[in-house]
Each structure stands twice: as C-alpha cells, then as structure tokens.
Amino acid sequence: MRQLRPFLILISLALVSIICGQENLQWCNNGPTTSPDPKWRKVPSRFEIMTELVSGNETMELSQAFSMQRDAIVTNSRYGSIQFYWNFVTNEQFEILTAIVNQQPRPTCLRQVIGPTSETSVIQPNTLMIKPSILLGFDPRNQINSLWGNQYIGDEDLRGIPTNKFKSCFDVPDIRATVSATYYISDATKFQAGLLANESIILQIDVQIRNQSGRQEAYKYNVFRYTPNPNRREERQALETPAGVYCPNRTSTLAVPEDIPDRVSSNSEAFITQANSSIFSTHNLHDTEYQFSRIDLWYPDPFGGPRWLHYTEIHDFATGLSYQYNHTIHQCSVRDINTGFNDAVVVDGKPNLVQMGSPQHVFLMDDITYQYTGEKQCRDRVWCHVWIGEKSLPNNTVQHREWYWASNINGEPLEQWFPVKMVLQAYASGIPIYNWET
Questions:
Q1: CA–CA distance from 11 to each of 125, 185, 331 (Å)?
Q2: What topology does CATH give the domain 4-239?
Q3: Fewer beta carbons under 10 A from the terminal one: N or C of the chain?
Q4: Strand (E) positions, 123-201?
Q5: Terminal CA-to-CA distance of the chain, rounded, Å?
Q6: For position 31, what pLDDT does the model report?
Q7: Is 34 exposed, middle or buried, given 0-12, 13-18 or 19+ CB atoms closer than 10 A?
Q8: Nearest to 326, CA basis, from 351, 308, 343
Q9: How many Å apart are CA 85 and CA 44, to the nearest integer?
Q10: C-beta of residue 41 within 8 angstroms of C-beta of residue 35
Q11: 28-50: per-residue pLDDT in tens?
C-alpha cells in the first residue's frame, strides 16, 4: 500500500493550480480579521457541506461532514473518488480509494497517525487545498478558531441570488500559510426560496492562500448544499468509514462482545467462486453443555445435475467421534474428530487430542484483533455495531471477517446486543475465492 501514497499526493497536486508570482492577490494589508462581523451567521459545530471545487481548468466535487471530534471529506474527479477521514479522539487519519486488483475493484485504506506536526487543515499534506471547515471558523483540530473572523463588505448578486459579501484574512498555523477568503451568503431579507425565516445559505467561497515559502494558490468553492446540525444518524454514517473496509492498525474504540451463548445455532449462505460460482447453504448447531455440534450443508450437484445435495456431519466430543452422512446416497461414515470445521481445538501439550472449542472459537472471534468501525444498518429496521478484521493465510490468501451485533431495532436502542450476521470472505492474490454470510 505504500505505492499508493505517491499516487494520492499526485492527484491532490494535479487538482490545484499553482500560482507563482501572480499579481492582484488581495492579502491582509490590515492584518488578520479576528472577530466575526455582526451580520455573519455563526456556523454550528456540526454541519455537512457539498461543493464544487474549481481551480484553474480543474473541477472536482468535494463534500465534508464535520463535527468537533471527527470529520470526513469525499472527493470525486476525473481521477476517481477518494475518501478522507480524520479522528481527533484516536488521532488517526484514513484515506480510502478503490484500487483495481486483477480487474476487480477493491477498497484500500491507508492509515496515518495524527501527530503534533501533522497538517490536518488541508485535504492532503504538502498542498494548500484547505478544508471548508477551516474557511468557516474552525482550527486544524476541529475546534473553534478564536483568531478567525470576517468583515461585511457589501452586497452583490451571484447567479441571480442577492448576497451579502464578507471578507476574511487569517493564518493557518499547521501549514504556515495566510488565507484571504471572500464569502457570498444569501441575503436573508431578499431571498427565502425553500428556507426558514431569517435563514441564509452559503453560496460561494473564493480562496487565495500563500505560505511562508512564497507558494501561492487560488481556487473557489461553489456550494451546492449546506446542512447545519444534520440528523445524528446521517451524520454518524457520513463520519464513519464505509462498510466492509478494513484499515490495518486502526485503533478500536469498542471491544467486540464475547457473550455468545453456550448453545447457539446459525444459518448461512456462501458464494463459492472456485466451485463454479455456486451457492452453499448451511445450518449449524453448537452446544457446549452437551459437547455436541452439527452442521447440515446443502449444495448444488458438482456435475451439473438438477438436484441439491445434502450432507450432515455430527461431532460428539464425549466420544471423540465424527459422524458424516450423505443424504443422497444414504451412506454414513465414522471418523475421529479433527479441527477442520473449527469447532475443535488441540489439547495443550497433547497434539493428538482435541476438545470442543468455545463459542468464540467456533465463530472465529479469538484468533485475530477486531476493530470497531461504527454502526450500520444490517437488516430491515435493524442497526448493528460492526467489527472487522483480517487474517493472513498461506498461499498469499487473506481472510476478511465482519461481525454485526444488533444495537437498535425499530428506532429503539437495545440494552443487550446480540449477533445477527457474520461476513466471511477470502482473497487469493486479490482474487475473491468465497463470500460467506451467516
């Protein structure tokens, strides 16, 4: 993934026109503006903004979801889509893009630690493309910038909409730059289309920026939509990394539950690429108290016949025997239990003996560290806390796992979470082998 770092930086550099020695840049001749004008409507500490970022001949869509602990930016351009996430609680930054591996799209996540010298006011380090939140009065760590302000400088029609114009000059300390910005805000006394009384919207922000080394850039944000204080659930979805994306070395903020009952059953379906892209269905029963487990497997005829085949395997840990029954040919065989179905573990110090594994072992919860990725909708009217993990296997194979525990049903939070879904996938050299979901 290190090879992707130069690629991402090149994209960011390509999207901003570098202006060297340009005249008529309007810098802060009277020093920074340190307090908002009385006519300025304060931006709340939670908002979402959708924009078009225009720089020279380059244009891209850019949206930001913002809170005082986290923010996220999504960009779409002719170079593709990239998602950026900053978490100032865990001091981590993530960049997610979709790479094509063996002609298959796969999301790739890059993690960086946010340190004292990290440049978090810009979308990418070593650029001068600052976030919308910096222009709206927040500092590089998403706190209110007490040294930011603006001044009302008059009115102007913009795209047929009457606006109030504001000017701001301020410093951005983490990139050692000075910003001169002009804001176009709809005039609440003259324009009310679809707005509440006395409500205005941000329409455009023109940006000129220069750092201490003399590098200068200019661009503008055309604002499509600005939503102050968005719905909490929508905000959370925007601030969290997407479902199914694993970020190596990520700090987990919530431990995966371990209270799986000693007696549990599950149903699952698997899409097996290497078996002619067939679907396999299973029913599993695991009973620790009675030292007993059973798996029923239904799968299509590997020779292309119309019938589905049915196979049952029962493990009796009291005797150490495994019973396999083929329902198609009515044949039963008896063998010693092995660890092939993941319900058995080797006895410490006795490699030739096995015993029944815990429910956590059966459900693959005890051999890797899971990371919490947030709350996602997992069933109709059901929301789940989600944990994700990956394990390296032989032959350049990676096993990808996701655990979903119900946390909210019909809008009501649950006092006791319970597991409702597990996703198990495997990739060999980036090529999918199977996709299993319980």
A1: 12, 30, 61
A2: outer membrane lipoprotein receptor (LolB), chain A (2.50.20)
A3: N
A4: 151-158, 161-172, 177-186
A5: 30
A6: 80
A7: middle
A8: 308
A9: 20
A10: no
A11: 777 888 899 999 999 999 999 99
